[in-house]
């Protein structure tokens, strides 16, 4: 810890400088500050595509962090890494763990929906229409939840729900 910044991106550098300042002035325990440092380093590694390093940092942050809200974001980011590596079952597990701690996390709901939609598309391609319908219905339920929490987001999902007739089955607002 702290990790060497390889990225010359202005926004990443700015985030790191601000995070370092916040870390120094934050009225938090040493353990909380250490957990935040690992989380920050995990985000930095993740943004550079260094997923193994990011996971190491996130797991250490998870070990140290006690606040459920903060833990939910660590779990969510771990889910992002597994999803980007095509490990969808693991990603779903981490997204659900994040939602168990923070049910108001629209990105996790959206990402779960995206995985189910993807599985529905794959099942359709194999002509397994029953599985496809089940996966699409699951995707719809998670997208509806995400849209309820963030009505101005997920426009493509809203359009998909409308065009497939899945939005009408539940009052969205």
TrEMBL record:
Gene3D superfamilies: Tetratricopeptide repeat domain. InterPro entries: PSI_Ycf3_assembly, TPR-like_helical_dom_sf, TPR_rpt. TPR repeats lie at residues 35-68, 35-68, 72-105, 72-105, 120-153. GO terms for cellular component: plastid; thylakoid membrane. GO terms for biological process: photosynthesis. Pfam families: TPR_1. HAMAP family: Ycf3. Belongs to the Ycf3 family. Seems to be required for the assembly of the photosystem I complex. This is Photosystem I assembly protein Ycf3. It comes from Teleaulax amphioxeia. The lineage of its organism: Eukaryota, Cryptophyceae, Pyrenomonadales, Geminigeraceae, Teleaulax.
